[in-house]
Amino acid sequence: MATGKYKKKNRGADDVNSRGRVHNIVVPMANDTSKDERDVPWSLLIAVIVLCFVLVIALPIMGVMYMDMNNATAMAMEEARKMRELRVKILLEMRSE
Asked: What end-to-end distance do the CA atoms of the chain give, in Å?
């Protein structure tokens, strides 16, 4: 442990006073005299509106889009299977001639 240049034996009162100036600052609080008023923050209201939008509008639309995409994929796979079968039939008819 390094020793300091100045001795600390008489600095007790000075330390308390210097720290007190910095740490005793109190931030003024808001006035809470009117407890009857409803004070709803705007951020909470906006969050509830966004949540309702997501649950009521966005999720059902996404569900319909997903089902439509699923049906389109199934139909495309069915058409591709039919085209393969038709290609095999055409090749077999060409070889038999």
From this structure: 103
**Domain presence at residue 27:** no
In order of 18, 20, 31, 46, the CA distances from 26 in angstroms are: 16, 12, 15, 32
How many domains would you assign to the chain? 1
Q: Residue 59 sits in which domain range?
A: 42-97
Over residues 14-33, the pLDDT tens digits come to: 555 555 555 556 666 666 66
Tell me: the pLDDT tens digits for 51-81?
A: 999 999 999 999 999 999 999 999 999 999 9
